[in-house]
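Quick start: what a row looks like.
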Amino acid sequence: MAAFVSTCRKVFTRQQLFPALQHFMEQHPQLTLESSGTDRKVDIVVKAWMR
């Protein structure tokens, strides 16, 4: 199983990411999508380390 994990600003997630991934996910149903929308600053290095 493959996974795509994303943390983005809410507006980007809603306006750009979800529309772009909808077709992709239909073509690749074996993938798992995890997305988090937030407007706070996120240290992606620390967040990746915590997974």
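That is the whole record. The mean pLDDT is 76. The beta strands are 3-8, 32-37.
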